[in-house]
Design a protein that fits this description.
Elements: H1 34-64, E1 70-71, H2 72-105, H3 115-137, E2 143-144
Antiparallel strand pairs: 1-2
Length: about 140
């Protein structure tokens, strides 16, 4: 128990009523109508993953064309980022399909896979750092024509 003071209500503002199946709903059953809402949220998440992957690939293309001439380090940095962007596309699609299946089955086990997005974030961040190191500190005497 906490000794928090009671919440004050603003005059004329009543809290909205609980939706059907809200708080009184059993925790192992989703609220009615939430299936469509869950699928739409999953699709928005999928599109965000796609947007991020395409941006990483575009960054790779920009790194490959960095400067007046194409050098081996800039080409390597671009290829690495394009590859990671492609892997991000694959991961996004696999995750989207898995979560769709879980929503349809009513088995919400996505919290067990919370390591996936963390690993992907670390890989993308590390890859961008490696690409920047390649561009900044690599020998620029080697040019490809």
């Amino acid at each position: 128990m906490t000794d928090d003071p009671p919440l004050r209500k603003r005059p004329g503002h009543e809290p909205p009523p609980h939706p059907p199946g809200g708080r009184d709903q059993s925790p192992d059953r989703p609220a009615p109508g939430s299936n469509a809402r869950d699928h739409l949220a999953n699709e928005r998440t999928f599109l965000a993953w796609l947007r991020t992957s395409v941006n990483v690939m575009a960054l790779g293309l920009a790194f490959a064309a960095f400067g007046d001439v194409t050098t081996a380090p800039s080409l390597a940095a671009g290829a690495i980022l394009a590859g990671v962007g492609g892997a991000g596309l694959w991961y996004a699609t696999a995750r989207y399909r898995r979560v769709n299946r879980e929503i349809d089955e009513g088995a919400f086990t996505t919290s067990a896979y919370a390591l996936g997005p963390t690993v992907v974030s670390l890989v993308v961040g590390t890859t961008i750092l490696i690409a920047l190191v390649l561009l900044v500190f690599a020998d620029r005497d080697v040019t490809l024509r």
